[in-house]
Amino acid sequence: VINNGVSKEFMDDTLNIFKEFHAMPAEEKIRESSRDPNGSCRLYTSREINNKDIVQFWRDTLRHFCPPSGEFMDDSPLLLAHHYPPCPEPSLTLGAPKHRDPDLATVLLQEKDINALQVFKDGEWIVVEPIPYAFVVNISLMLQIISNGRFIGAEHRVVTNSGIARTTVAYFIRPTNEQIIEPAKLWLSSGARPIYSSITFEEFVRNFMSKGPDIEQELLL
């Protein structure tokens, strides 16, 4: 998405802040991320689930949940700042495995001139070349359910490189835990039957964390 209304200066400042954070010594990063009084800020390394590939993951992540506030009481978004250091063996590692995000949609700010994000389409991996000061918007698994399969969650992965570090900021659009995830009436108005069962977002995320993409098959009616 270009011409998005977000200033170039703000985008640069955002990436630079997280670059500075990830460049700090490990002890300082742990101390800074532990200052959050709500405990919603977490720092972790190469945290993955249900990995069926024999491959190592090469990534540090700062996670921050944004609690509902003001006019956004129905939302509970998540912010992830990923840092991918240069890797001496890119062929043996991934920044992130093939997956679909368990949210409504993901808005990604990535560094220009570093090709790392790939989407799986028509049986092959396609590089998503960064466009300066543009956002990449991924359709996620939850929107696939709400649209009753009209929109398909984007399968994607991140590859590493040996020459240069890469930093990204991902904003995940999510509801609050108690909200029900199910096919919207809009997509059933023409008499179509729902193909997915209903589930709370809290249960949906919990099952996704334990079962990964298999949760989609379990929700099919």
Automatic annotation (TrEMBL):
Record bears the keyword Metal-binding: yes
InterPro entries attached to this UniProt entry: DIOX_N, IPNS-like_FE2OG_OXY, IPNS-like_sf, Oxoglu/Fe-dep_dioxygenase_dom, Plant_2OG-oxidoreductases
Domain Fe2OG dioxygenase: from-to ranges: 73-175
Entry-linked SUPFAM superfamilies: Clavaminate synthase-like
Superkingdom of this protein's organism: Eukaryota
Sorted UniProt keywords: Iron, Metal-binding, Oxidoreductase, Vitamin C
Keyword RNA-binding: no
GO MF terms, alphabetically ordered: L-ascorbic acid binding; metal ion binding; oxidoreductase activity
PANTHER family, A to Z: OXOGLUTARATE/IRON-DEPENDENT DIOXYGENASE
Family: Belongs to the iron/ascorbate-dependent oxidoreductase family.
Name of the protein in its database record: Fe2OG dioxygenase domain-containing protein
Organism: Glycine max (Soybean)
